[in-house]
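Before relying on records like the one below, remember that each one covers exactly one chain. Contacts with other chains, cofactors or solvent are not represented anywhere in the record.
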Amino acid sequence: MRMSCSSTRPAMRFTTLASAVGATFLLLSSATPAHAQLGKLKKMGAEAAKKAADEKLTGKKESASPATGSSAESSASATASDAAATKAPTVSYALTEDHVGLVLTALTPRLDAARNRQALVKARREYALKDSANKACFQKLSSGGIDPNAMMAASKKNAVAIERIDKQTGSMQTRLSTAAGSQDRRAMHYLQDSLNTLQMRSAALKMGSSCTADFRPAVLIEADIAANGMSGDFDPDRGQFDPAASVKDKLTTTQFGRLRERMALWALLQETPSLKVGKDGVFTDEEQAVLTAHAAEIKALTPYFRDNSMRWKDWGDVKNWK
């Protein structure tokens, strides 16, 4: 565009200048004396000539549109510079002193929650063994047939114990109705579990059986309450793990996750050097030095890394991360 217009530019400038002078002359002639008109025309002509010379010297022409000629190039250059300036910085997953300190700051307050989760897992496992044995006993009892005469004899023999249970369950039924009316979920859970257990024990006494039933541990009932009454693997930390702002402001979610995982791998390797790990389980001399310096703090977390009580593989326990 520039090359094709270079030969016609002087003529264009002269025509533009002549048109401007002519129009101004006509405008001024009707209201200004002749000598004043001539002075103004000379001044305008001089300014136009100076502008044309300046344009020729710099090799560019001013334009009202920023999308043409050198103005467009300047705009594009400025955009590229801005993009380069705002490019996201490289994220580091190195276990530096700062990074290890931040991860420990986030995890250490969760030790109590990890201990609770560990206790929950243990209680659930132990109760499941007892409950399975109890159900097997009742299943065997019912499949063998029930002798009415034997039941009458057993009921007479165990009458005192049966009456005591009946009084307990009667009172519990009343309390359960009251709890249901007031939407007291905690009371409802405990009362319902107690009723189920006592009714099973009463049935065993009436049949003269040695079968029994066990009350569910409080930690399991509390877990059900916290999980809105839903059964299953309850995670007391899920949706509640909220690291301090000092951590979230300095680490991204992914960065925190990988750093936590690398720290866990290092902790597990201290106990089992033969553990197979990927590239995240390979540590530089600098990282080894930092981790060794914090070995006591990391060791406190190791049992929960090992049995997964300290959730570090998924992000269901993380919230409000910027």
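The radius of gyration is 43 Å.
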